[in-house]
Structures are given as C-alpha cells and as structure tokens.
Design brief:
There is one protein chain. The protein is mainly alpha-helical and 164 residues long.
Length: 164
Amino acid sequence: MQIISDALLLIGFFSLIAAIIYGIRWFKNRKNKECKEYKKNKRSTIISLIALFSALWFVGSVEDYIDQHSQQTTQTEKNVTTNNGQTEYLENKEEFIRTFTSLGIKTEDLSKAEGNEWRDAIRNEGENFSASVSVKKIEDNHRSEIIKVKELSDQLHQLDQKIQ
C-alpha cells in the first residue's frame, strides 16, 4: 500500500507542475478569450487541478488505511502478548497451588514425625532428657524431609515472584 501512496504522491506532484504551467499560459492568454490556446490552457489547468486534488484525496485515503492496518496489527500483537502473559500467569498460578499443597503436606508429615520423636525422647529419657541432643537426633533422622521442605519453600517463593 505504501507503493500506491508513493505513486499517487508522484502523480499529485506532476499534476501540480502541469497545473502551474497551464495556469501561467492561461493567464498570459487571458486578454484574447476567443483564442484556441486560451481555451486549451484553461481546460488543461482545470483537468490538472482535478487530477491533483484527486491524487491528494486518494493519498489521504491510502494513508488512513495504512494507519488503521498498522494499528490493527499492533493491537493484534498486544493481544497475543497479553494472551501469552495471561497463559503464563495461569500456568504459574496453578504451579504455585500445586507446590503450596505439596509443601503443606510435607510440612504436616514432618511436624507429626518430629512431634512423635519429641514425645518419645521425653518419655524414654526421663530425667536425663537433653533438648540439644534430641534436636540433633531429630535433625539427623529427618534431614531429607527438611531439605525437601526447604526446596519447596524456595520454589514457592520463586513462583510467587513470577506471579507478582
């Protein structure tokens, strides 16, 4: 469409030049209105002006079409980007929910297991109970579960940052 617009501008330019030339000739022959040259130049000037204004009007129409098409293309690209962003947001949200649920389950299981070990340690050791020894023993027994909870917590934080 830009080629058509440029061609119409070129036609408008040549029409302007022709209108100026024929207009000058028409003006020079204005004293003799019955002369053939006067009528020919008048007719050619009017035709050149009509061609000039038509070309300019069509250039405006083509430029409007180009602008509208450009805006539609830009809007379509924005919509695709927005849709991709919404899709990514929804995927991140679903992953966040899955990770949050998994973290909750792992934390609850770990908490129950540690609670049971604390209860057993307090019952079995009686007066020889040492909290620091019990903590160390519980950490050693559940190291893999503690690491898994920490990993899930970090993953949950990263997903939260993506969503925001």
